Amino acid sequence: MTVTPPTALYRFFDENGVLLYVGVTDNLGTRWATHADQKHWWDRVTSYTLEWFDTREAAEAAEQHAIWIEKPLYNVRHTRSKGAQKRAAAPLNRYCTDAAMPKLVNLNGAAELLGVSPQYAHRLAERGQLIGAKFGASWMFRRAVVEKLDRQRRGETGKAPPAEA
User: What is the DSSP string of 27-63?
Assistant: First the structure.
């Protein structure tokens, strides 16, 4: 029986929590050294997150999903084509049993839902106007909270939107 090493899904962020890149590897040191040597954006990376998967297939499915939903700035594979959307949505269901996962969005996802830049969404979060949880330099939000803020910003609830700055 061949034992396969676990595979990491990693996300790189800049100092403002903007998602730069999503990738998978079973050898972090080698892969990250390759990024450092070859990628113009490497100097912007200030933090990262890791998720471990038992198989590469599961990690790659999660990677496709993350790239489609979270829209990192520098990924090329699995980006915004209709084919990529279908591939990203379908395989993840085979590996993720947590029904709450689609209920969460990261900073880029919140910015997209609000129709603002990730930098402005970050300011809203730092001011406490967008309620979420901060993990190191990364933010996560409940989709329902972001959607409620969006309705408030558009005046659908009668409450005042957060001040622009």
Answer: -HHHHHHHHHHH-TTGGG--EEEEEEESSHHHHHHHH
**Alpha helices in 20-160, H assignment, sequence order:** 28-38, 56-70, 82-92, 107-114, 118-127, 143-153
Report helix, strand or coil for 23.
Answer: strand
Which range marks the domain in which residue 16 is found? Answer: 7-96
pLDDT for 109 equals: 85
**Residue 19's CATH number:** 3.40.1440.10
Residue among 88, 122, 117, 120 nearest 102 (CA): 88
Q: How far apart are CA 149 and CA 156, in angstroms?
A: 10
* Structural element, H or E, at residue 99: none
Angle at 62 between CA 59 and CA 64, to 5 degrees: 110
How many domains are there within the chain?
2
CA distance 58 to 53: 6
Do 92 and 11 share a structural domain?
yes
Q: What is the pLDDT along the chain (165 residues), one digit of tens a residue?
A: 677 789 999 999 998 899 999 999 999 889 999 999 899 989 899 999 999 988 898 899 889 888 888 889 998 875 555 444 444 444 444 444 444 445 778 888 888 889 998 889 888 988 888 887 776 667 778 888 888 888 888 886 555 455 554
